[in-house]
Specification:
six-stranded mixed sheet, 402 residues, alpha/beta, globular
């Protein structure tokens, strides 16, 4: 029996998301989430897809090792245990790969050391990703562990897009450059959009808008990223749920000198208390739209600022690409918030962009066009699937190495 299953792990600081997929047909066998790791009220939710049954468990899960052991136990109850000979590899989401990792990579001691070296530029994510990898290695030391990096898709950016205009020696000494994030989503959506258009990825120029609580845009030319909105960290770019996105860097100095704020306080402000939640007190677009519909001026302003920034990036990336075949909306807001899609494209008819109101109002989990037939540039809604992308890249790599 050939091994065709891949377990995908996304280890956060206090959570582990997981999916088990069979790459023979790209089907999901099980999905789950362990959250509030390290608390007395830890929670595990596990779904066996074939039988459509869900089990939930609450209680103390002290650390990631205990969390992954609990996951293994749940999988075993469904006959999908980690000891199965059908399990080919474990694929791990790793947020920051720097310039070193441009593709999925089988983990060894050198890879672990480099991921650890990158912790200063990803202090919230890389430590948790490392913990997940090391725990999985301890549980199945014989199994290939593959790191799939959020930054890898963006490593094709030219230096003119990736470098900041600061002293090059300082930048190089501290690895300061635009890395970009959400790369697995942008890669998946770029290919899926090309397929929707009936074209090969290398023949298509796209603007991909990944709009969730975290949000990023990318300019994709012939299947390769040539620019993206997030930078050294996921703070730069679009207005997000709790992050400010683009801002005059001197605001930080002003807050230190005039506001008397510490670097940690400013970090918290810009990453956790800004964006939509800073503007109107809500970071859920559904709630913001409800408030807008009720005439709430603060919510309306937050929405307008969000759309203004989004529209600026569409225009900027149109200029970068020169020719655009499609604009693709994805992730939680991009896939579900029709008012966001409509507002982002409104007024861009001279660029060939338009949205059909009826098509835009349709809710579906399938890739679809929402632009009228006459539109010169297609507007698409393409549900992302980062777990499938991680599994696909992992399985392709393991297959090549076997």
């Amino acid at each position: 029996m050939s091994a065709s299953r891949v377990l995908v792990l996304n280890s956060g600081s206090s959570s582990v998301k997981y999916q088990l997929l069979d790459m023979g047909d790209s089907s999901r066998l099980a999905v789950g989430l362990v959250e509030r790791i390290g608390e007395e009220t830890s929670r595990l939710k596990h779904t066996h897809v074939e039988s459509d049954t869900t089990r939930e468990w609450s209680g103390p899960i002290p650390d990631h090792e205990a969390a992954l052991k609990a996951v293994a136990e749940e999988l075993a109850k469904d006959g999908l245990g980690l000891d199965s000979p059908e399990l080919a590899a474990i694929g791990h989401r790793v947020v920051h790969g720097g310039q070193a990792f441009t593709a999925p990579t089988v983990v060894d001691s050198a890879v672990l050391a480099e991921i650890e070296r990158l912790i200063p530029v990803a202090p919230l994510h890389n430590p948790a990703n490392l913990t997940g990898i090391r725990t999985a290695q301890a549980l199945r030391p014989d199994l290939p562990q593959v790191a799939v990096f959020d930054t890898a898709f963006h490593t094709t950016m030219p230096e003119s897009a990736a470098r900041y205009a600061i002293d090059t020696e300082t930048a190089d000494a501290h690895r300061i450059r635009r890395y970009g994030f959400h790369g697995t989503s942008h890669a998946y959506v770029a290919r899926a959009t090309a397929k929707l258009l009936g074209k090969a990825p290398e023949d298509v120029n796209l603007i991909v808008l990944h709009l969730g609580n975290g949000a990023s845009a990318s300019a994709v030319q012939g299947g390769r990223c040539v620019d993206t909105s997030m930078g050294l960290t996921p703070l730069e770019g679009l207005v997000m749920g709790t992050r400010s996105g683009d801002m005059d860097p001197a605001v930080i100095f002003h807050l230190m000198r005039v506001g008397g704020m510490s670097t940690d306080e400013i970090d918290t402000l810009l990453n956790k208390k800004s964006g939509l939640i800073g503007l109107c007190g809500d970071n859920d677009m559904r709630e913001i739209r409800r408030r807008v519909d009720e005439g709430d001026e603060q919510a309306q302003l937050a929405f307008d600022i969000y759309i203004h920034r989004l529209k600026k990036y569409i225009g900027a990336y149109y200029a970068v690409l020169g020719r655009v075949d499609a604009v693709a909306f994805t992730a939680g807001v991009g896939e579900n918030a029709s008012p966001v899609r409509e507002a982002a494209v409104a007024g861009l008819e001279e660029l060939g962009l338009a949205v059909d109101a009826e098509l835009n109002a349709v809710r579906s989990d399938q890739p679809r066009l929402i632009s009228p037939e006459y539109a010169r540039v297609a507007v698409a809604v393409v549900p992302t699937d980062e777990e499938l992308e991680i599994a696909t890249q992992t399985y392709a790599l393991v297959g090549r190495n076997n």
